[in-house]
Structures are given as structure tokens and as C-alpha cells.
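Risk register update: the risk that structure generation would not scale has been downgraded. Supporting records follow, first protein first.
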Amino acid sequence: YVKVRQADHTLYLSKGTLHNLEGDYEVLEELPGAALEGWTYDGPFDELEAQQAAGGPAAHRVILWDEVGEAEGTGIVHIAPGCGAEDFQLGQEYDLPTLAPLSEEGYFLEGFGSLTGAQVSESAEQIFESLREKGIMYKVEDYTHRYPVCWRCSTELVFRLVDEWFISMDELRYRMMEVTKLIRWIPSFGLERELDWLRNMHDWMISKKRYWGLAL
């Protein structure tokens, strides 16, 4: 990583992403990424009631994560444990605060300032404008990446943290596989496909809220 001065700002970013900077800059120092571990920092929305309740600025600290690379951005990402599966798992590992900002209909809940009541799919520009007003917006850039979309209605999906009920499959998968082998499969390749699914399936969620129904 490098410590960079640009105008009146001091920036930290991976050495391989210096090309993302616009204009003149001066490299002040080089340091290994591990040196940043444990650093705390101020977040862009620490004034929000929900963030204050979650610990305010004290909730933000740098941790090391193999999933982050240098191909995009600065090599540093901000995670949201209440808004993504990988983020949630990392948050559990490091005991990070978990904010779940959205209602079932995808609207921001109370405690999120001017975003409260806003539809998540229409909130991006409002967030950008808030960052501009605070003087902490560096650059907005579009880039192509994978994103989950409902295969039924082609609507972009968002992650929400909710409570659900699961059956632990570690105790059942091999018993189910033995029963599966007793079934006559037509066509025959269905057997191996089913066994592969049972080998790799996660714990079985039984509290799915699907309006089209699910028979067990």
C-alpha cells in the first residue's frame, strides 16, 4: 500500500491502483497492507441514528480479507454485514455491528436520516449527493460486474438480514443419499444429479416466504 498526498487530502490505496487517481499526487510512504490492520476510521454516514446506535465511528476498523484484490478501486472495500452473505460471515467472525436497513418491501427503515422511506433501487443518486455535499466524493464510475437478478421477473435483488429456520443437513445428508439410491430414476442420470445436490447443499431452510408455495 502507499500513502499519497493529493491537494489537501491524504489517501491510502494499493500500489497497483495508483492509476485510478486523477491529477497530480505525491507518494509519501509505502507500507505493507498488514500494517493497516486494526486502524479505525470515520465513516461517511456516522451521523445517522442507526449508525450511532451501532457504535458510531468506533464500529469502523480495518481488517484483512483474502476476497479483496487490486483489480478495481483502491484495494480497500467497505463491507455491510447486514446486506450481503460474505459480509455477514466476515462480520460474525470479527464481531462487527450488523445494520439491517431495509423493510420487506425494500424501503429504508427509521434511523437512516433522509434515506428513511426511500426505495433502495432509487437511493443511489441521493447517497451520491450526500457525499458531494460533505466534500468526500472522489469519483463516480460505472463498471460491469455480476449482480443477482430474479430469474422469474428480471428484477434486481438486494440482500436483507432476516431470521429463518433451518434443518442441519450434516446429520441427514448421508441418510438421505442412501434412500435416494433406492429410488428408480428416470432418466437414470437423475440419480447422480440428486446425489451431487445432497453432497453440496447447505443447511435446509424451511421457513421460506414464497408466495407460490413450497411442498415438503
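Supporting record for the second protein:
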Amino acid sequence: VKLRPHTVILKGDPAMEAAKDNSRLILKWGIVAALALFALWAGLHNGLPQTQVSFFTITVFALAIFALDLLPDALVATVLPAAYIITGVGKPGVIYAPWGSTVGWVMLGGMLFAAIMLQTGLAKRLSLWCMHLAGGSINKLLFGIVAAGYILGPAIPTMMGKAALVLVICVGICESLNIEKKTPLGEAILFAGFLSFSASRIAYLTGGGDIVMYVKT
């Protein structure tokens, strides 16, 4: 009896893992396309002007990419204003007007400061010092991260400034403890960092509706 050749795929087979990754990637892009098409259909169905339809479609498309982490955030944020200009949503002077204020430069400075702390190892040193103060207790560490926002609040009133400092230390803690991404412990540490600069902002009556924009951070 002649047996037909067959392929045995083991659980840890790289080919099988690559196929699963490709399937997930295709599914994510399909979700992005479906959401963008739904926004386009909803805008046209309700008789909105062309500029508003373009704005909502592009915005939903970009937010879906942000949520599913398909492309680097900096790349999407850079291309988004150009997409608004190309589709006629607004003039360049209006689209790039926020960059003429201090908000954009504060954000850019915060990201630069965070990159410097990570590259020089300062973030890891601060994270080790924080863990030493916590005495090795994860509960004390999480409480200390949240409390740090209230301590820094009067000195650093801007939300982006506190986020650049606190979240970088949270990332340093995860790297020092070799905590992998998207694990319960890693998410708890980063969520404590989020509460640190968001909850303290509300406590000092400087909070706003834009806090939800930092949830992804």
C-alpha cells in the first residue's frame, strides 16, 4: 500500500505561527476597512457635506489603525494632517494651526525627553530606585506610581509633562523586571501610570475631556 505524503505541523512550528500572524493581520486590516466604509456610508446616507464625510472617514480610519496598533503612531499622526489637506477638509494654515501654539511643542519636547531617558538608561535607574522604595511589593509600587502624579501635580501642571515622566518610568520598570508587553502585570503598571497623571489632573481642577485621548498611551 502506497501512502500519500503529508505534512505534520507541530504546535511550535514557525510556518504555522507565521500563518496565524498573517491571518490576524488580514483580519485587523479588514476591520479597519469595514469601519472606514461604514463611516463613509453613514456620512453619505445622512446627507453630510463632502468635507465632513471625508473628515469622519479619514479620522475613523486613523483611529482604527491606532486602536489595532497596525502602524507606528508617529507615522499615522504625521500622515493624518496631509490626508486632510489632500481631501480638501481644510487649508494647510488651518490644519497645522495647532503646531503654531505651545501644545504641539510641549508634546514634541515630552516625547524627546522620554526618548532620552530610555536611551541613556536614566529611566531604568529611576525605576530601580522606585522599586527599592517600594520594598519589592507590587501593591506599594502601584500605589507609589499613582501618588507620584499628585506630588508632581503642582510643579508640573501640564498633563503631557507628567505623562512623559511617569510613563517612561513605568516602561523602565517593565524592562527592569523583564515584563513582556500585553501581560496583566505590565498593563497594571501602565494603567497606574495613566491614573497618576489623569486622576491628579482632575483633583487639581485642571482636567478636561481630552483625558480619554491618553488611554491608549
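The mean pLDDT is 76. On this basis the risk owner (M.S.) recommends closing the item.
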